[in-house]
Design brief:
Strand order of the largest sheet: 2-3-12-13-1-4
Helix content: 10-25%
Radius of gyration: 38 Å
Number of strands: 13
Structural class: alpha+beta
Largest sheet: 6 strands, antiparallel
Order of helices and strands: HEHEHEHEEEEEEEEEE
Distance between the termini: 84 Å
Strand content: over 45%
Number of helices: 4
Shape: globular
Length: 301
């Protein structure tokens, strides 16, 4: 009897141990689950939240942007030299561009460039010149080109071709030299911006391209980049800036009294249907509209 009691007493610690182990199992499981949660939470904070906090620019989102654009109508009008339709009577009916600085104006006059503008209701003489021609007669031709230019963006307008063998007289720092043209083209750098009151500010810079096509450094706003093309000769001193309203027309041409000056190579016929030196060209730029354009871009935040 005494041995049985002792055996029962001896079995108590074992039973207590089993009971404690049974009670401890859920707690251990809970501790393990809690530890795993804390660990995964810390890992999530380390990998995701910290990166989002310290590197917010890595999150790209799509946004709709609005930009302004200017619609231009460009007319190339060809007439035989000394035609009364493009003579002094036409230029006297136009208005002087007041936004050209005095020094630029002197350079333009010296190099034979003429620039003026017409109100939104042009004269009958100008209307007749702008009437589009379906004839192949190079002495009575008017071609139209439409262009939508985002505000602040620059493009090129081809004004005329220059036959190989043409000599262009240039004046650099008071020293005159002759440029022998090979496969030449005359063009304008055209940039459209918005001025106060919703007016369009057009800036044109004359430029010659000639020679073989090759990889050449081209200057941009911030740096030089290599582009494939002909050798450019840009005349920044002949920059033309005009502020005109919707419907108004910018008129560009050359002074017939300065036939051998720089401007004469920009306003001549293309030489395809006849001798280019017998055809005089006008370039008319009409501001058709100023409007918003929408686009999608990826922005960083």
């Amino acid at each position: 009897m005494r041995r049985l009691a002792l055996a029962n007493i001896a079995g108590i610690p074992c039973a207590v141990t089993c009971v404690l182990a049974w009670l401890r199992a859920p707690m251990l499981l809970a501790v393990l689950i809690l530890g795993a949660t804390i660990q995964s939470g810390c890992q999530f904070w380390t990998n995701q939240a910290v990166n989002d906090y310290y590197f917010p620019e890595q999150q790209a989102t799509s946004a709709t942007t609005e930009k302004r654009a200017i619609d231009l109508e460009i007319f190339f009008v060809d007439r035989v030299k000394d035609s009364p339709l493009i003579g002094e009577q036409l230029w006297q009916s136009l208005h002087q561009v007041s936004t050209i600085e005095t020094q630029n104006r002197n350079n333009l006059d010296q190099h034979g460039f003429r620039i003026a503008f017409s109100p939104a209701r042009p004269s009958r003489q100008l209307q007749s010149l702008m009437a589009l021609s379906t004839s192949d007669d190079p002495t009575r031709r008017a071609l139209k080109q439409t262009l939508t230019l985002p505000v602040g963006q620059e493009t090129f307008l081809l004004a005329s071709t220059i036959p190989t063998g043409t000599q262009v007289r240039l004046d650099e720092d008071g020293v005159e030299h002759v440029l022998d043209i090979v496969d030449g083209k005359s063009m304008f750098r055209l940039k459209a911006e918005l001025a106060d009151g919703g007016w369009a500010r057009l800036t044109l810079i004359p430029e010659l391209r000639h020679g073989q096509h090759s990889l050449r450094p081209q200057g941009t706003k911030d740096e030089f980049v290599f582009q494939h093309g002909q050798k450019p000769v840009t005349f920044y001193e002949d920059r033309m800036t005009a502020e005109i309203n919707i419907g108004e027309i910018l008129v560009l041409g050359s002074d017939p009294q300065r036939e051998d000056d720089l401007a004469s190579h920009f306003f001549r016929g293309d030489g395809v249907s006849g001798p280019s030196d017998e055809i005089e060209r006008l370039m008319l730029i009409r501001v058709a509209d100023v409007h918003d354009v929408q686009g999608q871009r990826m922005e960083q935040r």
